[in-house]
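Annotated sample (chain length 135).
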Amino acid sequence: MSETAGSFRMLHTMIRVFDLDKSIDFYTRLLGMTLLRKTDYDSGRFTLAFVGYGDEAHNTVIELTHNWDQAEPYALGTAFGHIALGVPDIYGACETLAAEGVKIPRPPGPMKHGSTVIAFIEDPDGYKIEVIETK
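Output written by the structure step:
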């Protein structure tokens, strides 16, 4: 590893969202993240909102990009996989999220070929989020 490479750090993952308010509500109210900052860029007709579980100086966060002129939801494609979050009580978390109308295409249970308990949920734009029990 080069000297330069040793100074790299993961800062954020960016996803494009259709309804910024709905996405901010999902990530903050339902997943417990904090809205760290939100900036409108009038000349570019977009807004960036950063959410996460801690300050950007010490934590990797998610950048929600909202393009003002986007007329319909984004096609997610096949390259992106998922975001992963750890939670101590996956069954309770999924029950709460389901009661809020969150889609859970893969309910909690042991992963195939292993014993780790996982689930998959979807954010308002359909991005997959793996929830992993971290007891």
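Annotation: The longest helix spans residues 20-30.
Annotation: The first strand starts at residue 12 and ends at 16.
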